[in-house]
Structure formats: structure tokens, C-alpha cells
Amino acid sequence: MKYTEPYTIPFFMATQKGTASLATLVNAMLMGSEHQLDAVDAGMDAVLARGIGWVITQYELDVKRMPKAEVPLILGTEATSYNKLMCYRDYWIDTTDGERLATMRGAWVMMDLTARKVVPVVKDLVEKVGAPYSTHVERFKRLTKLTRVDRQQAYPVRYFDIDANGHVNNVHYFEWMEDSLGADFLASHELASMKIKYAKELPVTAIPQAQVQIEGATTIHQVVTDGQINAEAEMTWRKR
């Protein structure tokens, strides 16, 4: 079941370039899916009432060009399938003329918020958005492993970084990873693609390190706390 809605990125969420950041882009896409779930009583309130929460495990994103602020857009999303433990969803952002600016797919699990463990997918929630059951396990592209650290930066987790699931909201990892590249790199490059895999959640007391290896137009990232990897990512860039 596909879902679309109009959206405009407000000026106060724009970067210095007047466009969305990676975090803003993903947040907008996720907002569309939350609205779809809310419309069929399968959103945040419904899952929290059962003591569970949605947790992302992986994203893959391709960007033709970053949306500009204050320009009308169309958000789109579709829950494509689910199996015993995983749910898969597609996302996209179009102009009102039909130009596709960005596409993303994600893999999600459900977590018991008390035990902090993955639990089987609650069928009636995902079936409300028309997701078909499939035994097929979708494969995501393999990430390049970081072999050296060219730059790193500590980012203490703040109270307002924590979401309703009790851990760091997944988009903050994007902010740390991009910010660790430094102003000169970000000013001279535009994001073309990103893939990320989440490994271990972060609590409010953590002080993770964002580490990056720069290989020309490709950057390899990891967020690490006390020697343990919390997330790994790979981004490709276009020169401005």
C-alpha cells in the first residue's frame, strides 16, 4: 500500500547551501511513514501500548539532488514485505513535477522496550499498511570496513538525542558522521549515496566517537563507544 503526502522543508532546517541535510532528508521520509502508520492505528502510540518499539537495522539511500528548503515536495513510502523478524520499507521524495530526488529502503525489527531484545513482528500492525508476508530475506549491499582513522570526533549523547524507544534517534548518527568530515569537505561535496548498518544502541550516558576514513569521493564511517561499534556506514560524494 503506497502512501504519499505533500511536504515543504522549512527554511530553519536548511543547511548553509539552502538544502536539506542528510538527517533532515531521512527525517522527512520517516515522517511520511509515521503518518501512514498513524492513519491506520499502527503508529508510535499503538506499538508503545504493547511495550514494543520499531528499531532500524539498515538503510540504503540514493540522492539525485538534495531538496531545497521552501520548495513543495511529495513524500512517498510503502511497506514492501515482512517475515518473522524483519520488516522492509521503501521511501522516496519527488518534486511536484514528478522528478525523483531521493530514494531509500530500510530494514526494521521490533524490540521489547523492557527486555531490550528483538521480538517477532506483530502481524496485525504491519498488515494494516498492506505489507505482504514473505519468507524472503532481503539483502543489503556489503559495507566497506574502516581500516584506518583519518579524522575522529567525540559526540556526547544529550537528553534530547533520545527518542521514545529509549535510545539515540537513528538520524543523529548521520549528523555525527557528516560533521566528522569537517567544514571544508562538506562545503565542497554533495552526498550521492549512503548505506548504514546499526549494531548496538546508545544510551544517554554514552560518549561515542565518530571515526572516518576518506578515500577520494568515498567516505567510510563508524561510530564507536569504548571499543564497540554502534554503527557503520559508507557514503559516496559528488564534487560541487
Write the topology of this structure:
Blueprint (H helix, E strand, L loop, with lengths): L1 E7 L13 H18 L4 H5 L3 E12 L8 E11 L4 E9 L4 E13 L4 E3 L3 H5 L23 E4 L16 H9 L3 H6 E10 L10 E7 L2 E8 L2 E12 L1
Helix pairs in contact: 1-4
Q: How much helical structure, as a percent, in the residues?
A: 10-25%
- Series of secondary-structure elements, N-terminal to C-terminal: EHHEEEEEHEHHEEEE
What's the helix count? 5
What separation lies between the terminal Cα atoms? Answer: 37 Å
Percent of residues in beta strands? Answer: 35-45%
Cα shape: globular
Largest sheet: 11 strands, antiparallel
Secondary-structure-based class equals alpha+beta
The average pLDDT value, as a whole number, equals 95
Residue runs with pLDDT of under 50 for 5 or more positions: none
Give a count of the beta strands, DSSP E runs of length 2 or more.
Answer: 11
Integer-rounded radius of gyration: 18 Å
